[in-house]
Amino acid sequence: MLAHHEDRDATVSGVAEAVRLSPAVAKRSRVPLRDGVERQARRLSTRAGWLVAALLFAAGHAASAPDAAPAATAPGAVAALEARLAVMERALAALSAENQVLREQVTRDGAALERLTARLASPTGADGRAAPVVTFAGKENRFAVGGVAQVFGETGGAPDARFNGIGDRFQLRRLRVNLAGAFAEDMAFKVETDFGNAAIAANSGARGQLTDAFVTWTRFPALRVQAGQFKTPFGYEQLVADARTLFVERSLTNDRLTVGRQVGAMACGETRGKALSYSLGLFNGTGVNTGANDNSKFMTAGRIAGVLITPADRHGRVRWTAGANFFNTVDRGAFNGRRTGTGFDTQVSGVLGEAGVEWLRNDCHPAIGRNSAGDGWAAYGVWQLAKRWQALARFESFDANASLPGAVTREWTLGAAYLLLGDDLKFTLNYLHGDQSGQRDGRLIGRVQVVF
What is the mean pLDDT of the chain? Predict the structure, then answer.
């Protein structure tokens, strides 16, 4: 009987030692345990604790057995205790083996982490030499680098005046690189440069020009203040990001009647749920990448847009939006006088695709001469044929001068798009067929787009 108690004490000591080893191993490793290893250690410790408790209970039960009939009950109690001890010894052996595996895994993980820490502290290149380390001098808490590349292949004639004199060609239409960041103090910024052709018209010589450069105060969603160079809030299609345009080129109406990017300041915001948004700004009115103002007056531009019908859920209910915008400027450059612009647009989208209409008008009041006006509209539709395939169609009518006959251009754009990775990797093919005051012509344009 004494031998059995000695075996029991040894078993208890072994279990207690196994329980003690689990945290000791983690302490000696000098590194935090990985999630899976840490969970395994806790599981093993729990199992060992239950074994110890069961063992102590069995020992106490045997020790507290009544002495009234020792000869009758002692052999049965000893046999039961021996059976329990045999089971516990096998469990202890398995526990010790698992504990050894855990010890070895912690040692391996610790060594690997030390090597990784040393490598990060002193990075090396493929040739084994020290690699350069890039650090940021600013205090921003978010920083992103991105861009878009669009390569065109074109053949055909001139469906509208923008393509007059342009033959078959390949063109690096856009190659933009941007830097954007934000500070914890509710300030954000963006800088973007375009190294591509940056226009439909042919340009010679590689060059880079600033497209966007602005800072934004972002404290309140309902009121943000932006200053620098950016798109003016006039024209729905103009405000769509270049990487998200549905067609290879924007409509002729958009290109002729909007005022593009300008240097200035703007207040903008949106209500909770983005049901209503607004923008109102002051600009030099002299175009992109110029710090001059041709007079002491600023161009004003503004837009308001709202969601008339919002989807009830994400399973394809119809969404209907609409917007209106304006601009007003007094110029003393190529045009001397006052120009005003107005526009309205609406869009409907759902699971089957998207459709929209936009109308724009410019009124020119020269200091000398007769007033003139130009207007135009464009209607488009996009059909989602499959997950990655879209069919595209657009019709537009543009009147360069309503007071002169024969100034109307009507144009169809038909095509398809294959979205290999959404807008990030997209292939688009458009055929443009236009009628310039009775002169009809067509042009086929393919676009490969990569967003990075």
Answer: 84
